[in-house]
Amino acid sequence: MEKRWFQLSKEFAKHGHEVIHLSKEYKNLPNKETIEGVSFRRKSGFNFHSNKLISNFYDFLYSYKITRLVPDDADVIVTNSFWSPVLLKKTHRRKTIVDVARMPKGQMKFYKGIRFYRANSTPVAEAIKNEVSEVKHHMVKTIPNPLTFKTNKIENTIDKEKLVLYTGRIHPEKGIHLLIQSFNEITTKDWNLVLIGSYKVSEGGGGEKYLMKLKSMVSKNNVEILNPIYDINKLNEYYQRSSIFVYPSLAEKGETFGLSPLEAMAWGSVPIVSDLTCFKDFIKNGSNGLIFNHRAKDRIELLSKMMLKLILDNEKRNKMSQKAIKVRDSHSIENIGAQFLNMFALDS
Description:
By secondary structure, this protein is α/β, with parallel strands linked by helices. It is built from 13 helices and 13 strands. The protein has two domains: 159 residues, Glycogen Phosphorylase B (Rossmann fold), CATH 3.40.50; 174 residues, Glycogen Phosphorylase B (Rossmann fold), CATH 3.40.50.2000.
């Protein structure tokens, strides 16, 4: 989220808008600075806490401090925290766009007097509408997440490595155990599977026990589980090398967009994803990616067959790769930034 709004804020500034970014204080960063026309003001906050009640209380305290910093003459206010739309001054709420990038949990109906709800995907938009009255449905606007990097490099998709990649949290709800089981079924020996992400509970992972379970399932020496990579340039190197990107998420209600598949597509890696609605906003089955039924009893076999289909059919994989790479334009900072600016200009 921080990466997306950092890039979007700079895009808004390029168009002549005054942009102020209010966020949490962070080590090695000044409390006030200006970057490419964007003013950053940071206030002290709290570390993540596993107890949801304590976490929500911390969010309340932090949001109160942050909302007091909003200038009275602001034309547009975008919120990214649970409590902010409630704690803002009444005069600010009518200028507020609630940025909803996760599945709402009943809080949308409490946000009174706001201007718009921004959903990052179709299922999130529908979930918001289910929580608010029908007269407010026109206030729900769907704008996808942008890519947080830009590249014009021409990809030679034919000569990509024989690499199947997954990046994201190492957690049971991501279906990684299905991916390993499915890859075990593939007899082709010259392809590798690389999984990149954190297993630590504090970072949203499934814990060391789940990691050990995954390692015990590996039946080949061509499977690697690597620590998370936070440097987007280094992560892009893996996306660029990979031919196939698999994201077999089982999170029926938790998955809201799927940034990792989108990032992989920008480098021509053909995605295979589970049958969750959020992926269908940008992945067209059989065209720029494949979708498998993760609810089926034979889901392991289905996923294995899809991977093998792409592995063996170079021509098909290359055609899908060339279509996948078009997300560079559809989800560029420039394109998504323009959609936000158009929404900002609308009357509520």
